[in-house]
């Protein structure tokens, strides 16, 4: 039931404090700085043998996979490709016994994702799945899995089943890095300790919901918007834009910010607001210069910024504040105001937030 909330989507956004607490429970040994993912069946021998990981998924799950590429390449130094499942399955992908095909799926029943797993199986890959629905087909056909602890997700727009796999992928990257001898014990312990901060950081983002609602009130009639991000937060631009378009029917585009000068900057004028994801991560200075360029062309800018930042408020028209977060975990935090923003715009426009037009919760046909 929805309880005090108007829509399941809003309830599920708020449930992320609990779902992420559950995601850590039993998997993270904070005393020794060790990650346990027993259902993955990851032996030290397999960890050392992997030459490539192909992440395959659709929609929001694919955006989680894009963050996963940053995490696994950074912490375990294994090459990772991210492929939309409907492309991967028909591309005759280069996959062999030393490849892991990693599917990410809330439902575990998405037709294209299952077909991509079948393709991996035919070619001899190890199959892993990160899935939310226990007993789903993706879980059954995988050699190993991580069960997301999101709990049942009812709203069609995925929210808590986006942040749960982000944390799962972070834990997986640490585990792989450790088993392959890439991570020092000190780094591993620090990375594991950072996980403890997550539920509280999410809760602090949610406390700022009234500020996000205020911006949504001002911007509820926009027709277009451009989401920009870089580095590990680039996929959050895609995810924020998808949330807005699927429930509010506003045209939202996402770009890696560095691509602006290669074409899309031509779009910017007073009628094309820019939403810039610019927390204090290693790409912060690059984002600032991108925002300056958008402002110089008359665009209004909304930025996701780290609390205490004194440059962005002077530059931007609106700010979504997020607490300071270790940068490898920042996508878990920066996405929260974007979920709330999409939700409130759609709710203010009187739309059917939980059942948007033309969409189904689980896409079991191709
Ligand atoms: C967007 C959304 C979809 C799903 C996609 C994959 O909010 O929910 O883009 O992420 O259809 O679904 P699963 O994760 O069930 O494979």
Automatic annotation (TrEMBL):
<protein>
    <recommendedName>
        <fullName>Glutamine--fructose-6-phosphate aminotransferase [isomerizing]</fullName>
        <ecNumber>2.6.1.16</ecNumber>
    </recommendedName>
</protein>
<keyword id="KW-0315">Glutamine amidotransferase</keyword>
<comment type="function">
    <text>Catalyzes the first step in hexosamine metabolism, converting fructose-6P into glucosamine-6P using glutamine as a nitrogen source.</text>
</comment>
<keyword id="KW-0808">Transferase</keyword>
<comment type="subunit">
    <text>Homodimer.</text>
</comment>
<keyword id="KW-0677">Repeat</keyword>
<keyword id="KW-0032">Aminotransferase</keyword>
<feature type="domain" description="SIS">
    <location>
        <begin position="42"/>
        <end position="182"/>
    </location>
</feature>
<feature type="active site" description="For Fru-6P isomerization activity">
    <location>
        <position position="361"/>
    </location>
</feature>
<keyword id="KW-0963">Cytoplasm</keyword>
<feature type="domain" description="SIS">
    <location>
        <begin position="215"/>
        <end position="356"/>
    </location>
</feature>
<dbReference type="GO" id="GO:0004360">
    <property type="term" value="F:glutamine-fructose-6-phosphate transaminase (isomerizing) activity"/>
</dbReference>
């Amino acid at each position: 039931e929805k309880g005090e909330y108007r829509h399941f989507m809003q309830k599920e956004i708020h449930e992320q404090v609990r779902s992420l607490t559950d995601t850590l429970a039993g998997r993270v040994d904070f005393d020794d700085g060790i990650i346990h993912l027993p259902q993955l069946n990851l032996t030290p021998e397999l960890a050392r043998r992997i030459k490539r990981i192909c992440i395959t998924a659709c929609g929001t799950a694919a955006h989680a996979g894009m963050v996963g590429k940053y995490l696994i390449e950074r912490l375990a130094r294994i090459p990772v490709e991210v492929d939309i499942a409907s492309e991967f399955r028909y591309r005759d992908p280069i996959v062999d016994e030393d490849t892991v095909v990693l599917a990410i799926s809330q439902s575990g029943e998405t037709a294209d994702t299952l077909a991509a797993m079948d393709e991996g199986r035919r070619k001899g890959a190890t199959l892993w799945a990160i899935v939310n629905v226990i007993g789903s087909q993706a879980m059954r056909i995988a050699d190993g899995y991580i069960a997301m602890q999101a709990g049942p997700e009812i709203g069609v727009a995925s929210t808590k089943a986006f942040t749960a796999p982000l944390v799962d992928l972070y834990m997986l990257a640490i585990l792989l890095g450790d088993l392959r001898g890439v991570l020092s014990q000190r780094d591993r312990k620090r990375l594991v300790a950072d996980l403890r901060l997550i539920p509280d950081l999410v809760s602090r983002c949610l406390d700022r919901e009234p500020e996000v609602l205020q911006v949504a009130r001002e911007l509820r009639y926009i027709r277009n918007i451009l989401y920009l991000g870089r580095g590990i937060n680039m996929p959050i631009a895609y995810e924020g834009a998808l949330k807005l378009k699927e429930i509010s029917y506003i045209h939202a585009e996402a770009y890696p910010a560095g691509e602006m000068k290669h074409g899309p900057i031509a779009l910017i004028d007073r009628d094309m607001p820019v939403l810039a994801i610019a927390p204090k991560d290693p790409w912060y200075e690059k984002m600032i210069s991108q925002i300056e360029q958008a402002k110089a062309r008359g665009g209004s800018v909304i930025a996701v910024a780290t609390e205490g930042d004194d440059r962005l408020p002077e530059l931007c028209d609106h700010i979504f504040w997020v607490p300071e977060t270790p940068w490898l975990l920042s996508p878990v935090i920066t996405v929260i105001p974007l979920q709330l923003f999409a939700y409130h715009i759609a709710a203010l426009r009187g739309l059917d937030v939980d059942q948007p037009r033309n969409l189904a919760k689980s896409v079991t046909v191709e």
